[in-house]
Specification:
This protein is mostly beta strands and about 40 residues long. It has no helices and 3 strands. It has a 3-stranded antiparallel beta sheet with strand order 1-2-3, with no helix packed on it. About 0% of the residues are buried.
Length: about 40
């Protein structure tokens, strides 16, 4: 997963899932490294 943008507390990420490049935006709090045990739903 690569961060491709950041604005207004939102982080845009892209990744390749084996078929296509996917893009999704997350709130910066959702992907904070302060709680590595928390899993993100996609």
């Amino acid at each position: 997963m690569v961060v491709t943008g950041y604005a207004s507390g939102m982080v845009e990420c892209r990744w390749y899932d084996g078929y296509a490049v996917r893009r999704e935006a997350f709130r910066s709090e959702e992907i904070s490294a302060s709680n590595p045990a928390q899993q993100l739903a996609s």
